[in-house]
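Its record is quoted verbatim for completeness.
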Amino acid sequence: MTWDLGAGLDGRGVIVTGAAGGIGREVARAFAAAGAKVLAVDLSPAEGEKLLGELDGSGHAFRAADLADLRTHGPLIEAAQQAFGGVHALVHLAAVLRRQAQLSDVTEQDWDAQMNTNLKATFFLCRAAAEAMAAQGRGGRLITFASQGWWTGGFGGSVVYNTAKGGIVTMTRGLARTYAKHNITVNAIAPGQVRTAMLLTGLDQHVLDAMTEATPLGRVAEPAEIAGLAVFLASRHAGFITGATINVTGGLVMY
């Protein structure tokens, strides 16, 4: 086995959702640097085109999609298969956060928006990708994104968001058991506080300060510090890891 981080990724098709976001952008860049062919997915065509200009190598593509619309999932998988000759990995980061400082202020619309995108879409997109991988007969990788809140319950008015993220952890385990027979591994990455627009939007400074103080490493992570783990989990090196939730929290979550 070649001992480089992205072993086995050269020329492989990888779908990255939420690719124009803070972490997603770095994940897409990391996969391109490892030699993969990236289908970047996000809501904004303008941001998607900008991202393509940042990726190493050639042959990458972008598709704008609202993944809460389940009708977009099949065409995304098909586009990656046609462009890259198959799908090796799905790295699913797309999510929405609606902060409400008081639980009494959470509306049904807040609940539905977050559950539909963060949990429901995750299940159906992962299932579609896994079924395509199984049909290809070459195995594959599903990488979901949870949050430290799956364990802590979340901070700063994010209870509903992190309820969905807890569901993703359970879902990841169930998918791992289901698709193991097809040599498809399924793992979750659970970041702590990462310096992104999603983290900082609507978050009181004193809450951020308290979270940072509670983190043993004493700082907020940078998005690039998450990306390497995603590449590793998609590589040959991680072929015997499945059903895991890996916390990248600077020590905030330990077990």
Observations:
- The chain has one domain: 13-248.
